[in-house]
Structure formats: structure tokens, C-alpha cells
Amino acid sequence: MSFGEERLGDIKQILKDMIRNKCVNPPGNEMRSIRTLQEYFSDRGVETQVFESAEGRGNLYARIEGIDPKHPSLTLGPGHVDVVPVEDPSTWRVDPWEGIEQDGFIWGRGSFDMLFIVACQAVVFSGLVQEGFRPKGDLVFLAVSDEEAGGLFGAKWMLDNHPELVKTDFAVTEAGGFPIAPSRYIFMVGEKGVNWKRLKFRGEEGHGSMPYGVPNAVLKMSQAALRLSGYKPPVETRFVGDLVRGMRLNRLMRFFLENKHLVRMAIRLSAKQDIGMSKALHALTVMTISPNVAQGGTKTNVIAGQAILDVDIRTLPGQDNEYVMHHLKRALGDLAPEVEIEGAPGIATSIGNASPPQSEFVNALRESIRQCTTPDVDLVPMLLTGASDLRFYRDVGAHAYGFSLFDDKLSLAEITALAHGDDERVSIGSLRLTAEVYERLVRNFLGRN
User: Fold this and answer.
1) Are residues 216 and 319 in the same domain?
2) Is 163 exposed, middle or buried (0-12, 13-18, 19+ CB in 10 A)?
3) Are residues 32 and 106 in the same domain?
4) Is 98 inside any structural domain?
5) Buried/exposed code over 18-37 (b: 16+ C-beta within 10 A; e: otherwise)
6) Are residues 23 and 164 in the same domain?
7) With contact defined as beta carbons under 8 Å apart, do 401 and 362 qualify?
8) What radius of gyration do the chain's Cα atoms show?
């Protein structure tokens, strides 16, 4: 089975249109791309429903009813149509909002994260409807808003307000499908938790020409940022075992990476060869603390009376807010009593979660990949170091996984740098492979055999 040129052309056009829709979040305005999808489906006789969660913000739902109520159901999605801003378009090789096809890639903000998956899933779903496919279990397509700002107007809103429509036994969306070793592809079985914190510091305002002995809020904030960035939380290796085995590393390096007393040394050594992989391994073994936004003071000649520091904290599954606060205070040391800590705006706190790395769905996914590539291919489970809408599905009992399928046009380091980065793009070959693997997955998991 090969994905035909006409349907590949549909994927490319939908992807280009959604890039050009420029659904930057905030404010989102995702209804532009929701209407793009709705029109595509309508032109092909596919019935959809659009749910508006806020003005200009929408979510699109479609379903193929299954013939066996006892068979597990599957969602293609939730796929988000919002994208992050572009800070400086001049640093791109192309206009980030043109949806340009060039050098075997489609370029543009959101192309990789994750408009290409939405386009592939939409065309696969539409094709199945048009051919009269009758799945064993229900098949749902869901495109949503607001993932880039926490999902409160998208996937979570749909699960809260229309669970009878969108809650399924399994779901597949971003991210995964990266080649990590010969014949080995990553699939995401879970993700780290999100716990953003805002630290507030107080000083005493005074004339900037006489700073001696005057508490300065900006200085306190700077000291706190250095302490937080240098802090070493406890290491956990339970989420890297399958990964390092799948990477086919030599036995000594595997021993180092699976030993919590040696893993930091192993990460430092591996950084000399592959900084991208070292960053991932570090994030998978500790709670990460990243001070990213600093604000303080009012005027150059006024000693700062107030300052704030927003910190991005990503937790491993099982690490709750009590764990986070304990280690923040340890990191701050004697500064801790002088710091007011609260949740930072922008995203709701979540605890990391994961689905089983082995299941009937994973077996169907593995078989689908082998049909698209070679018989010796296997899957390597991994935690997503960021956050996705799949956390909401796991919270309501679904088994949810991230997977697409990439060709060899880019290295692993290049692929992992695409999300939210300059020159974001996706290869035409990856579009074809991703669509093929989704179609085979649906047939293998929901087909009547």
C-alpha cells in the first residue's frame, strides 16, 4: 500500500494553508485552521462538528462508528492547530508564514509542531470515510485549539464538556517517530509534568548612586537564578533503561547511564559527541529547573524594590508539588525565607503520566511501521520532556501515545531542534511515511482482518 500522489497533494495543501493561517497562540484565532479542515472534509462528504470554546477558538470532531461495541476505540489526535510566535523572521531562510515548498521540505512555523500530523490524520480519516471503511471500534478525528498555552480551550475543554464524544480507549498524536538507531524509532508513552513557578523578591527603593547596604531585589533575584540553575536534583534512571538499550550503545555506556551514581558523568561524556541526545537524557533523569523570565526595577537610577523570576520546572512522573517546593527551597538555601513562591501564569500545573509501553495498540503500531519500512524495525519507548494534550487523555484512563514517522533527510539532532525553532520544516517523505503508517495503524488495529 502506497499513499497516492493525489492524497499526498491534499496533505501538502492543508499543511500550507494552516501555516498561512498564522494561528499564533496567544491569542490563537484557531478557527481559521478549523474552518480549513471543515471545508476539506465537507468537500469530500465527511460530516464534522465544530465546538467553539471561546471567541475565535474552535475544535473539530468527526467519528466513524464501530461495528463492535466491545472493541477498543481510537482517536487520531488530538492534533493542535495553534502555533508559537516567531521572534525574528529575519533569522529564517524563508518567510515563516508563507508555507513554502522548497528542497524537498515544507517550511513554516508549526509545520513540524504539529500541523503536518493534523494534515496527515485529516486526509487519512477522510479517505477511510470515502471508501466506506467499517472499523471494529469507533474511530474519532479531533483537531483542537490552545495546546501551546496549556490546552484549556482545546483538548481539556473537549474532554470536560463533551467526554461522550471524544473520550476513547486509545489515542495517537505528537510526538515521536524519530530514528534513534538503525531500525529503531522512538514512540512517546508519556510525558513529564509541568510546574511553573513565579518567585517574588523584595528590596528597598533608594537612589541608585548610593547602593551600599540597601537590599536590592534584582540582586536577590540574580543570586536565586544562579542557585536554581546550578542545583542538582536527585537522579532517577527508571525512564532511560529502555531508551539506552534501544540506542544500541556499548555495554559500558549503558552501565553508566542506568546507574544513578554515574549517569551525570555519562551525560557529560556523551555531550562531546551528541549534545541533543545528552540534553534529552538529562531531562529524562531529573526534575529540570530553568529560570527563564526575569523582571525587576523601575528605573536605572532607582534601587530595585521588587523583582520576579519565572521558572520552568518539569517533573518526572510521580513528582508532585510537595516534591517541587522541597527542592526549590533546598536550592535557594538561606535565600528561601526571603522569597515568595507561587504558580506562574501561562499553563496549568500537571503531574507527569505514562501509558504502558506494551499493549495491543503498540503491537499494531509496531506491525504498521514494519509494513512501511523493514521487518526488523522496532519501537523504543520514551517520555516526552515537554507537555502535550495526551496528558489529559491519560488522566481520564486512555492509553495515549505519540508517533509519526520520519525519513532520513534530517539527523536526530536536527529533528529535535525544529519545534519552536528557526527554519522549522518537515520533509515531503516524512509526510508520506506518516500518512501511510497512520492508515495502516487504523486498519491493523480497527480492521476486520
Assistant:
1) yes
2) exposed
3) yes
4) yes
5) bbebbbbbeebbbbbbbbbb
6) yes
7) yes
8) 23
Residue 350 backbone dihedrals phi, psi, to 5 degrees: -140, 150
Q: pLDDT per position in the chain (449 positions), as tens?
A: 457 889 999 999 999 999 999 999 999 999 999 999 999 999 999 999 999 999 999 999 999 999 999 999 999 999 999 999 999 999 999 999 999 999 999 999 999 999 999 999 999 999 999 999 999 999 999 999 999 988 999 999 999 999 999 999 999 999 889 888 888 899 999 999 999 999 999 999 999 999 999 999 999 999 999 999 999 999 998 888 777 777 777 777 777 777 788 888 888 887 777 777 788 889 999 999 999 999 999 999 999 999 999 999 999 999 999 999 999 999 999 999 999 999 998 888 899 999 999 999 999 999 999 999 999 999 999 999 888 999 999 999 999 999 999 998 888 778 878 889 999 999 999 999 999 999 999 999 999 65
166: containing domain: 5-191+353-446
| 100 and 167 fall within a common domain | yes
Distance CA 120, CA 224 (A): 45
pTM of the model: 0.89
Tell me the one-letter amino acid at 134: R
CA distance linking residue 311 with residue 377, whole number of Å: 39
Reading the block at residue 299, the C-alpha cell is 528605573
Contact 140, 66 (CB under 8 A): no
- The HSE-up count of residue 8 (CA atoms within 13 Å, CB side) is 14
197 and 172 share one domain: no
* Same domain for 376 and 272: no
Which cell numbers hold the place of 185? Answer: 524509532
Q: Which residue has the cell 478549523?
A: 34
Number of domains in the chain: 3
Q: Report which secondary-structure segment, H or E, holds 57.
A: strand 57-64
Report yes or no on 174 lying in a domain.
Answer: yes
